[in-house]
Write a structure and sequence with these properties.
This protein has seven helices and 17 strands. By secondary structure, the chain is an alpha+beta fold. It binds flavin-adenine dinucleotide.
Length: about 300
């Protein structure tokens, strides 16, 4: 970090932490430290910070529900969007949502305002920025079905509005690069019947409790489903359900969920994942692809 930014940190409302543990912000609750961690107050300060930090060496953290930070940490700056990115507004027949809004809060807002189509967000524990980057979805709906455009900053602090079709959303992926920061997401507005919206949300909640170990330290589905196949089924049939590596184990409820039983290191989790990849490959000749993002050294 430049001396200028060090000076800035004293004047900004954004909060800066040095050699700060990042693993604790992830759902796995394990992993190392970031050289610099900043909770960015608002867009004005985001611009200042982006102008000062090393262009390539930063990463944007959402709510850490799809992220594994390696034990030796991240040798750069991790940014997290703070208060100024946490609003939801209905404007000119559009729904404008700050990128740090949690998916569940958007779904609750939609329920209160009779907006339909966003019920599936009640089943995903991330932020809206993370939902766009990952094209998150469940129970037959995904982010690409409901957004119209996004506001994004690049590493040179330039702001752009990008239309949905230009971010190439596909199964659990987009073409948004690690040095692009989504700050706002615009949704199409469709109104529906409150009781109908509520029933859908209740159903999603029930199904999740039955099928997923959601109260554990996990990042949800670890691997993407290969075309026309289920990763969980392949993992189970390769004999991996219930196996462990250190304190990391494969959920016996949902074989595509890896769980930190308490003291798992990020290395335990990554090694367990790699072991699964090997076993599935040797049984089916299919190479599983990580859905969980892994960063650090
Ligand atoms: C119990 C559990 C259940 C889950 N179920 C589902 C499910 O049903 N469907 C599903 O799709 N996912 C599911 N997930 C995975 C996860 O919740 C989603 O991928 C979610 O969208 C990640 O959002 P996040 O804010 O937590 O992102 P993070 O985990 O913090 O980051 C994920 C990626 O998004 C990027 N990112 C985050 N915010 C921004 C931003 N503002 N701008 C640019 N990039 C950003 C990060 O840089 C990183 O590359 C589940 C996870 C858990 C723990």
């Amino acid at each position: 970090m430049s001396n200028k930014l060090l000076e800035f940190t004293k004047k900004l409302k954004s909060k800066f932490f040095f050699d700060h543990n990042i693993g604790k912000y992830t759902w796995f609750r394990t992993g190392g430290n970031a050289k610099i961690f900043a909770i960015v107050e608002n867009s004005t300060e985001l611009e200042i910070i982006l102008n000062e930090i090393n262009n390539d060496n930063f990463f944007i953290l959402g709510s850490g529900s799809n992220l594994l930070v390696r034990d030796n940490g991240y040798n750069g700056t991790i940014l997290k969007l703070g208060k100024g990115f946490n609003s939801i507004n209905i404007k000119d027949n559009r729904l404008e949502v700050g990128a740090s809004i949690l998916d569940i809060n958007l779904s609750n807002f939609a329920l209160k305002n009779n907006i339909e189509g966003l019920e599936f967000y009640s089943g995903i524990p991330g932020s809206i920025g993370g939902a766009v980057k990952m094209n998150a979805g469940c129970f037959g709906s995904e982010t690409k079905d409901v957004i119209s455009c996004i506001e994004i900053y690049n590493n040179f602090s330039e702001k752009k509005i990008i239309k949905k079709n230009d971010i190439k959303l596909s199964y659990r992926s987009s073409n948004i690069k690690n040095n692009q920061i989504i700050t706002k997401v615009i949704f199409e507005l469709n109104y529906g019947k409150n009781s109908h919206i509520k029933d859908k949300i209740d159903n999603i909640k029930k199904q999740r409790i039955l099928s997923q170990p959601i109260k554990n330290k996990t990042s949800g589905s670890t691997f993407k489903n290969p075309d026309n196949l289920y990763a969980a089924k392949l993992i189970e049939e390769a004999g991996c359900k219930g196996i462990s590596y250190g304190d990391a184990f494969v959920s016996d409820q949902h074989a595509n969920f890896l769980i930190n039983r308490g003291k798992a290191t990020a290395t335990d989790i990554e090694n367990l994942g790699n072991l699964i990849i090997e076993k599935v490959y040797s049984k089916f000749n299919i190479k599983l692809d990580w859905e969980v993002k892994i960063i650090g050294d």
